Amino acid sequence: MEAAGRTATIERGPGLSSRRDVARMFLVLLAITFVLRLPAFFVPVFNSDETFVATQAHVIQEGGQLYQDATDRKPPVVPYIYAATFSALGTSALWSVRVVAMLAVALTALLLALEARRRYGARAGWIAGILFVFAMLALSPQDGQAANFEVFMLPSMTAAILLARRRRGVAAGVAVAVATLTKQTGAATLLPVVYLLARGRGRRGVGRVALGFCVPLAAVALAIGPRQLLYWAVLSNGSYVGVNSGSVAVLAVFGVMTLGWATVNLPILWKLPQAWRDRRDPSLDGERDTDLWLWLASAVLSVAVGLRFFGHYYIQLAPPLVLLSAGTLARATRRAVRTTIAAAAVIAVGCSIAAYFLLPFGAEPNYESVSRYLATNARPTDTILVWGSEPEIYWASDLLPATRFLTTPTFLTGTHPGATKEQVQLDASTQKNWRYFYDDFHTQPPRYLLDTSPSKLRGAYPISDFPEFAKLVHREYRYLRTINDVAIYERR
Q1: Separation CA 273–CA 434 (nearest Å)
Q2: What pLDDT digit, counting tens, does each position of 239-269 carry?
Q3: For 225-271, where are the alpha helices, taking DSSP H only?
Q4: How far apart are alpha carbons 448 and 135 in whole angstroms?
Q5: Range list for CATH 3.40.50 in the chain
Q6: Handedness of CA 362, 368, 371, 373 (dihedral sign)
Q7: CB-based burial, 70-96: b 16+ in 10 Å, e otherwise
Q8: Strand partners, 490
Q9: Given the DSSP bridges, would you call strands 448-451 and 383-387 parallel, antiparallel or unpaired?
Q10: 368-491, which class in CATH?
Q11: Cα–Cα distance between 161 and 324 in angstroms, integer?
Q12: What are the pLDDT digits (tens) for 277-294?
């Protein structure tokens, strides 16, 4: 029997021995993912982003157009994933799309396992796959359990690296395009992809990547509308990602969030210094990991852009970190491997259990009573307007929004998540959004207007701060009642 302190031998191989082995690995990783994400079936809402995208999906299902009838500063893939899932399963309950998120996590874990085996040997494959599944839970439940943009971005992002390693430039470019159409930061993966193709095929390889990247983007732009996609996914983000958001408070958030994330992700971080030293070891072919360091650098850039450090942003760091850690652990002792995986498992199980009862940070809206009132009194054809940032009301009431703006602070008052009151600004984009808002409002006046500003949650400013809109509300609406700090108005 091998001694505990003896370094294990690396078994190298280009891949798993058969499709059956690949299927078996995927099922194991999916089973672990499913068990750890069981809270998905018991917690109605993990964060408001889920209900925001679910409302967009409802609009799409009813024949509405993304960006024209329901908009966000995000690319289009995730709303259509939600819409397709709701249509296929016949429900708008969020557990349905979280099941799809489980598949995305397991698929990403499988891709990482296959790449780790190809680079470092058979044992590294299992290490990478299992560590990734655990790392995806090493966050607060509101970030780790939700069906968010990053979860759906990772499979195509990871596939891009695998394809680029195999010198398939067009396919790698297409994969980066899909990641970018899921969330804008997916485009940062071009850094390692271009490096790999330039190294393997020179200018021709880079050109093939560019072709694969640009064609899908152009096709989607033509289908949705080039001006719509460019404005909402790119140009309207200027104030949101601007460096003017830097402040002492932001630096404090960065320190707290990064330290917290690093603490619960020590299992995929503690071998990173060794991986950095090994990159110069000629006996280990350290050059093969240059793309992983570039991938990690692009992920760090993606987390930092905009200087708003939400927990789910850090998910992008997991794939390159897992591969780098798997490479060093494949050369480590069995005791080190077992201890690392055991620690990751304990953290993941703890985060999974916490998801059943841990409330989000800060106050959350009590939307159920208001939604029940609307569901009882409104007609299915009625539209509503929620003034503030509680998209849960749209989702729970199953009523369509009257305007394309599902939250008003972000789009109409210059308030962005993570920004302080001093940073609020009515820039050109915000003023343009007001014009869109009034066009939508007058075209399809809402029967009910829900003013959530009395609850003082999520940066909702009082309607009285906007005299023109306040006059319109006073003239055309009458106050009915207040439920859980939400004032309900009905059109006269």
Answers
A1: 50
A2: 555 445 556 777 888 888 999 999 999 999 9
A3: 226-233, 248-264
A4: 43
A5: 368-491
A6: negative
A7: bbbbbbbbbbebbbebbeeeeebebbb
A8: 448, 478
A9: parallel
A10: alpha beta
A11: 14
A12: 888 777 666 557 899 999
